[in-house]
């Protein structure tokens, strides 16, 4: 996903603007698509540099799990310049811009498989959920909208930011009204 133009467009045009309005009402998680070979190696659609970009995003999410604005900001910064993932200068600049400790991020990526473990768990979570496209937006464990091939697909609730915000707010009220 980190090197996918559909994911870039999805984050830039749909997810991030919505999250700016509903971040306190959402348990936001990124999951990445890929495959795990029988020898436990992980393959990403856009190659191994994409796997590394995915690991960087997952490590930021792990390190800043209580601050979605930081981790999502870092991921969005990286994906906006996805052709340069995983160049050190891009990672350092995005980390600095969004308050991510570069040394902690680097430790996670290189630390005895922690980053790889995060990626493997993420790929398995996507597979278990039936996700096949980057970017697939899920809400309450259900498919909400897909961005694939430069177009929005299967967006029953609409593909505008206001549509997603409205769905989240309705679901939030329903789940928190005691009924």
Describe the model.
The protein is mainly alpha-helical and 179 residues long. Helix content is 55%, strand content 10%. The chain has 7 helices and 5 strands, in the order αββαααααβββα. The strands form 2 sheets. Strands 3-4-5 form a 3-stranded antiparallel β-sheet. The longest helix has 18 residues, at 5-22.
Keywords:
three-stranded antiparallel sheet; 179 residues; mainly alpha; globular; 7 helices; two-stranded antiparallel ribbon
List the helices and strands and how they pair.
Blueprint: H1 5-22, E1 35-36, E2 42-43, H2 48-63, H3 68-80, H4 88-98, H5 102-110, H6 114-128, E3 136-139, E4 142-148, E5 151-153, H7 161-176
Antiparallel strand pairs: 1-2, 3-4, 4-5
Helix pairs in contact: 1-3, 1-7, 2-3, 2-5, 2-6, 3-4
Quick take:
The chain is mainly α and 179 residues long. It has seven helices and five strands.
Strand content: 5-15%
Discrete helix count:
7
User: Reading side by side through the largest sheet, how are the strands ordered?
Assistant: 3-4-5
User: What's the assembly state of these chains?
Assistant: single chain
How many strands, what sense, and barrel or not for the largest sheet?
3 strands, antiparallel
Class inferred from helices and paired strands: mainly alpha
Q: What is the strand tally?
A: 5
Instruction: Round the Cα radius of gyration to an integer and report it.
Output: 16 Å
Helix and strand string, N-terminal first? Answer: HEEHHHHHEEEH
Helix proportion range: 40-55%
The span between the termini is: 37 Å
Low-confidence stretches: none
The dominant shape is: globular
